[in-house]
Write a structure and sequence with these properties.
Layout: H1 4-11, H2 16-38, H3 43-53, H4 56-83, H5 90-106, H6 111-122, H7 127-166, H8 168-178, H9 181-200, H10 205-226, H11 230-253, H12 256-265, H13 267-280, H14 291-301, H15 312-348
Helix pairs in contact: 3-15, 4-5, 4-7, 4-11, 5-6, 5-15, 6-7, 7-10, 7-13, 13-14, 14-15
Length: 349
């Protein structure tokens, strides 16, 4: 007869296939794209470009604005949690955001789970309710990015169509993805299976568990429509994305040729690069490493024709530095967060 504790442990054991899909695929994508990025690139020349061209004062301003965006995210989430009766301090929530980005560097998409578990355990609150508020937080980001994307494409439409017209293979690649039978067939199959299970096994343990989870998620999500401080929540959303966009603008100003992109093409060029890099975060990777640089190079490539010297090597140098600085700051802030949590737990004991 199997010991109950052994049975519990075996139920929570992650299968090798699931582990591979969850962590192996993002690492593979990250390594593969980074290899393609540096393949054929003169690393000595890249370092020379960074050392001689970059004004690190603008990079410092970029970091301050990115941290400001993370504090605004914590302040916005605080309003949602307060409406659920969870009184978390801005300091603790800010640290949870720092920790999220650090965890995502190692285990993609797991940072949000860690953040939810940290706050739920600290304030003795239901995990699903806290997770629902976090889902609402991320959904708000998705809507914000969608609005920024639509507005940007409306302003930059002629430039994008001109570029795509000169590169028809790009259009065919996008169309083939959107019209892929495999993509839409997979979506339809998952939907049919989910509905079939719900209709034929409404009282099963799995469906009941999913229903309870859904109720907790909805409670945490729906609070955003009835909570006090909606305008304050909206204000923090504007601050959050304003800091991210202005932060990228500061990064552009740190290199003469990327600053020239803004000078010649205006704020729209900055938004185009911001949208591409934001959408690149949908690709499973460790902290956006790999997809982010390629998205930035693609965005800058739209405006490089009239700027001598803004070649792939220069754009690669800029993209690598911009993301490397943010990655290093995430690691430092994450380590600070985890040390603070450990010391705080020790002091309470």
């Amino acid at each position: 007869m199997q010991h109950p504790r052994q049975h519990t442990i075996s139920n929570h054991r992650i299968s090798p296939l699931r582990f591979l899909l969850k962590y192996g695929v993002p690492v593979t994508i990250t390594v593969g794209l980074c290899y393609m990025l540096v393949k054929g690139t003169d690393l000595h020349e890249m370092w020379h470009t960074i050392r001689t061209e970059c004004d690190f004062r603008w990079i410092g301003a970029n970091l301050l604005l990115v941290i400001g965006a993370q504090v605004a995210r914590a302040a916005r989430w605080r309003l949602q949690l307060r409406a659920l009766g969870i009184k978390a301090s801005l300091w603790v929530l800010t640290l949870s955001v720092f920790g999220t980005y650090a965890v995502n560097l190692v285990f993609p998409r797991l940072g949000e789970i860690w953040r939810t578990g940290f706050i739920a355990e600290r304030h003795r609150s239901p995990f699903t309710t806290v997770f629902g508020s976090m889902v609402a937080d991320r959904l708000a980001d998705t809507i914000a990015v969608a609005i920024i994307t639509l507005a940007t494409f409306a302003m930059a439409g002629p430039q994008l169509m001109s570029y795509l017209g000169q590169n028809p293979d790009r259009i065919s690649g996008i169309l083939s993805l959107l019209t892929s039978p495999l993509l839409w067939g997979s979506i339809a199959a998952c939907t049919v299976i989910a509905v079939w299970l719900y209709l034929h096994y409404p009282d099963s343990k799995a469906v009941s568990s999913l229903r309870n989870i859904w109720k907790g998620l909805w409670k945490g999500f729906a609070v955003i429509t009835s909570m006090r401080g909606k305008w304050e929540w909206f204000f923090y959303t504007l601050v959050l994305w304003g800091c991210y966009i202005l932060g990228l603008g500061c990064a552009f100003m740190s290199f003469p040729l990327t600053a020239e992109v803004i000078t010649q093409h205006g704020f729209t060029a900055l938004l185009v690069c911001f949208v591409f890099t934001s959408l690149s975060m949908l690709v499973p990777s460790n902290g956006g490493i790999g997809p982010w640089q390629w998205a930035m190079i693609f965005g800058l490539g739209l405006y490089s024709a009239g700027i001598p010297g803004l070649d792939k090597g220069y754009m690669t140098s800029f993209a690598n530095l911009a993301l490397s600085v943010q990655t290093i700051s995430s690691i430092i802030l994450g380590l600070f967060t985890f040390v603070w949590i450990a010391l705080d737990k020790r002091s309470k004991k």
